[in-house]
């Protein structure tokens, strides 16, 4: 499916990114395996995880090169693009998977915890897209696969920084699809359910939360890779969509559209909004749900 194509996969030293890199290589892609090698909170650096994935790919007969850059730094994103061009003479696919978590209830959230998560997730996606956009335009082809989360799409406790970043990625991904469609460049989002180091850091204080974590442990990162590779296939025309994967289930997620309207020919006052508009629309208000409330059934 991907013979002759080159992919950059960020956060590919472990978990979801690792399985994507391995599967893309198994389908013929050259892979730049990026991973800073930090902790789940983004601290420290270790070149071992990225290099181990490269070694696995090469042992299986594939082609890969390790990269240890930080997606939050524009110069590191540019270096990844240059490494792909220098090593494999091209770039066709960017998988924006790198991420960190610094969860805390909002009234305790620090500016540093906010900024660090936004920097890796949202700014990191921007940096990677910006680094390759001109090349994608020149060659009139390219593919962005961006990772969002149901924590942003639906909601979750203690993840305001992460949820905001992941919803920002949805907007960025759609803008990339719109702005670059004329150059035959596609962009899609994936919200994964899979056990990872990051998921393991989420507090589970109630029995229901502990049970949900146990269910997630059965959802291996390898389940995410097939959709990612399929979206990267140059014969695929899908763009501007949001998908969710949970074990063997693939969901197409909704995107905001008007669902109800109210109108007064004389216009609105605060009082008529309160007494007419809001009650008229309230039957279609969304409840204050979390991801686990919406995806409440056991995965299949």
Automatic annotation (TrEMBL):
Record domain Ketoreductase: where? 5-201
What InterPro entries is this protein classified in?
A: KR_dom, NAD(P)-bd_dom_sf, Peroxisomal_Beta-Oxidation, Sc_DH/Rdtase_CS, SDR_fam
The record's section on Gene3D superfamilies has: NAD(P)-binding Rossmann-like Domain (3.40.50.720)
Record-linked Pfam families: adh_short
Q: Which PANTHER family match?
A: BLL2957 PROTEIN (PTHR45024:SF3), DEHYDROGENASES, SHORT CHAIN (PTHR45024)
Protein family membership: Belongs to the short-chain dehydrogenases/reductases (SDR) family.
Which named protein is this? SDR family NAD(P)-dependent oxidoreductase
């Amino acid at each position: 499916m991907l013979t002759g194509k080159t992919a950059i996969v960020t956060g590919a030293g472990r978990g979801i990114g690792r399985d994507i890199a391995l599967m893309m290589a198994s389908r013929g892609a050259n892979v730049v395996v990026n991973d800073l090698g930090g902790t789940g909170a983004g601290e420290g650096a270790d070149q071992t995880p990225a290099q181990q994935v490269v070694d696995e790919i090469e042992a299986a007969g594939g082609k890969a090169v390790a990269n240890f850059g930080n997606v939050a730094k524009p110069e590191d994103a540019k270096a990844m693009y240059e490494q792909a061009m220098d090593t494999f003479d091209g770039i066709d696919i960017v998988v924006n998977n790198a991420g960190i978590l610094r969860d805390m209830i909002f009234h305790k959230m620090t500016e540093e915890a906010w900024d660090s998560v936004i920097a890796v997730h949202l700014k990191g996606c921007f940096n990677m897209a910006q680094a390759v956009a001109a090349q994608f335009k020149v060659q009139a082809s390219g593919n962005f696969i961006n990772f969002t989360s149901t924590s942003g799409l639906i909601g979750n406790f203690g993840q305001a920084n992460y949820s905001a970043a992941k919803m920002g990625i949805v907007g960025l991904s759609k803008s990339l699809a719109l702005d670059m469609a004329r150059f035959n460049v596609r962009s899609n989002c994936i919200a994964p359910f899979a056990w990872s180091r990051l998921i393991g850091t989420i507090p589970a204080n109630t029995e229901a939360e502990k049970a949900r974590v146990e269910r997630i442990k059965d959802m291996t990162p390898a389940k995410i890779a097939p959709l990612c590779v399929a979206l990267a296939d140059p014969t695929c025309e899908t763009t501007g969509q949001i998908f969710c994967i949970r074990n063997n289930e693939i969901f197409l997620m909704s995107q905001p559209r008007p669902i109800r309207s109210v109108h007064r020919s004389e216009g609105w006052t605060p009082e008529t909004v309160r007494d007419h508009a809001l009650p008229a629309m309230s039957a279609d208000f969304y409840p204050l749900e979390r991801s686990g409330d919406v995806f409440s059934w056991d995965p299949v």
